[in-house]
Amino acid sequence: MADSLKSKNAPEEKLQVSRRGFLKTGAAAAAIGVLGAIKAPSKVAEAAVSNYEYITPKKGQWSKLKPEPNYGGASVSYAEHNDQWLGTSKIVGTVKKFKEKDMGFALVAQGLLGPKAQAGFYTIGIRHPLSDALGWAISPIFGENIVDGQPKPEKLPIPDPEQMSMHIKDVAYYLRADEVGIGKMPEYGYYSDKMNPPMMGIIGGMVPRGTPLQDVPFTEKMPYVIVVAVEQHLETYLASTGYDGISDSQSFRCYHATANISIIMAKYIRELGYHARAHHFGNYGAVMAPCLIAAGMGELTRTGDCVAHPRMGFRNKVAAITTDLPLVPDKPIDFGMADFCRVCNKCADNCPSQAITHDRDMVDYNGYLRWNSDFKKCAQFRAGNDQGVSCGVCIKVCPWSSKESSWFHEAGIWIGSKGETASSLLKGIDDMFGYGTEIVDKYKWWLEWPELYKFEY
Ligand code: SF4
Ligand code: SF4
């Protein structure tokens, strides 16, 4: 049985059909028949070609364990970034670093987005027993002495940085990362100042509510960033409303996994004699969006600074390792996300806090172009949600995030990466099937305790 997600911001229900029936009638084949007719190139790609050179990566560049990338069927081009572009993000001015205490959840913690959000945030990690357990497992590994340290005094020789890059990716896959990329670290990819107490101390309920946040200058400058991603559980998203009791655990499960992978990889690199610092949910010194783009793991989306991967969408969480280990970085990717977001609006239609803009085009934001979505409204809603814990509705509904692995969906993703006209077609098919907004009860495995989600403020 499948029910449907109804947020107060959701549009009128449109025609929906059963996927199974559609596939049986052969209509899928007819729809896929449009593939041959789709020739429109991505506008972003057209713009990009004149600004940077596309390259064809060598076969086997990625790793021995995973010699080819899995883009879920998307048509992907590779880009060389420069002063005017980071991947497909256009740089239009000076991109300034910002303080960690100016990001959404830090504003919430300081009480700047209202008393309800502040009260909710100080208990967000501990209200649901499962996210509490996952957060507890991250809490011993967020200290500076864990994420960073001195390298061994003797550097081991690295005669071939390309071979070392493949090896580092193999290490990440061996440690159970779902995706990994290596980027040239952008100068603006760090916070200017970290905050003290750190985020993990607040979320874990380790510091009293209202504790002032101090700025601690963050001065690291490393040439490379390794980014590791772990997928959030697809079936759980299919069964969830996106803002019920499991929502926070969906994030914490991946934060825990990526935190462990990142600290082990950083320590391993230091054992080779090179500097390496892990950046994970409990202790970020790097800002993940530019790192992800630089490492060829996605593009910006309508949500603002959230980066979508061609196969996983943004149904994943990431950690990173900044390092001076000799590596060969990957290239940023272009799979037509901007064209798709321009015609889609599905996250904006369903966001319960109306944080995501319906504007057609991007605007100048801190020296680069992105959609004008409001991260403060999002943080306020997630922290103050007392119908569940946190929120991931935009992840659930995004056509790039919520797909089972099959030839049909891969074909759809290929269509979606082929420009605006093709994107409109895929968005129409996605809506017709009720993708993203359906609630598939058969996958619901977790327990709910609504009384635990309420809090005093
Ligand atoms: S996570 Fe934030 S932006 Fe996404 S749907 Fe929820 S409130 Fe909206
Ligand atoms: S739901 Fe649609 S508009 Fe929103 S990020 Fe995904 S593709 Fe873009």
From TrEMBL:
4Fe-4S ferredoxin-type domain residues: 331-361
Domain of life: Bacteria
Protein's organism: Dehalobacter restrictus (strain DSM 9455 / PER-K23)
The keyword Chloroplast appears for this protein: no
Protein keywords: 4Fe-4S, Cell membrane, Iron, Iron-sulfur, Membrane, Metal-binding, Repeat, Signal
PROSITE patterns: 4FE4S_FER_1 (PS00198), 4FE4S_FER_2 (PS51379), TAT (PS51318)
Compartments, record wording: Cell membrane
PANTHER family: IRON-SULFUR CLUSTER-BINDING PROTEIN, IRON-SULFUR CLUSTER-BINDING PROTEIN-RELATED
Cofactor (UniProt): [4Fe-4S] cluster; corrinoid
Signal peptide region: none
Organism taxonomic ancestry: Bacteria, Bacillati, Bacillota, Clostridia, Eubacteriales
Protein name (database record): 3-chloro-4-hydroxyphenylacetate reductive dehalogenase
Coiled-coil region list: none
Predominant location category: membrane
Pfam families named in the record: Fer4_16
